[in-house]
Amino acid sequence: MVACYPGNGTGYVRHVDNPNGDGRCITCIYYLNKNWDSKLHGGILRIFPEGRSYVADVEPIFDRLLFFWSDRRNPHEVQPSYATRYAMTVWYFDAEERAEAKKKFRNLVGMRIYF
């Protein structure tokens, strides 16, 4: 996924990448923002590690590569960005969990309800 925040205070609310067992187990983010100044531009990725009393703030600076667990262990958000902010995200999938998620989805979509 390629994300572009237009710089008008846009962010992304706190969430978990894989809340429902869709197969994603590792999130990998690569930042493409040259000359980024978080004090001026914002756009920090804030991670709320499960069971911890602290947060981890990651500046989206150029050529930074970040890995974290995709499940409930790492809820995260993108704080408002005041400059155009680019990031590429790739997920590593667990093959068995992904196959099970696809099977559940096919069964759900294949269901017909008659009144």
Distance between the termini: 40 Å
- SS class: alpha+beta
Q: What is the strand content? A: 35-45%
Low-confidence stretches: none
In which range does the helix fraction lie? Answer: 10-25%
How many E strands? 8
| CA gyration radius, whole angstroms | 17 Å
Using the alpha-carbon principal axes, give the shape.
Answer: elongated
Strand order of the largest sheet: 1-8-3-6
Mean pLDDT: 93
Domain Fe2OG dioxygenase: 1-94
InterPro entries: HIF_prolyl_hydroxylases (IPR051559), Oxoglu/Fe-dep_dioxygenase_dom (IPR005123), Pro_4_hyd_alph (IPR006620), Pro_4_hyd_alph_FE2OG_OXY (IPR044862)
GO cellular component, one term: cytoplasm
Catalytic activity: L-prolyl-[hypoxia-inducible factor alpha subunit] + 2-oxoglutarate + O2 = trans-4-hydroxy-L-prolyl-[hypoxia-inducible factor alpha subunit] + succinate + CO2
Summarize the structure in words.
The chain has 115 residues and is of the alpha+beta class. 17% of the residues lie in helices and 38% in strands. The chain has helices spanning 38-41, 95-110, and strands spanning 2-5, 10-15, 24-31, 45-47, 56-58, 65-69, 76-81, 85-93. Strand 4 and strand 5 (56-58) form a beta hairpin.
Key words describing this protein structure:
115 residues, alpha+beta, four-stranded antiparallel sheet
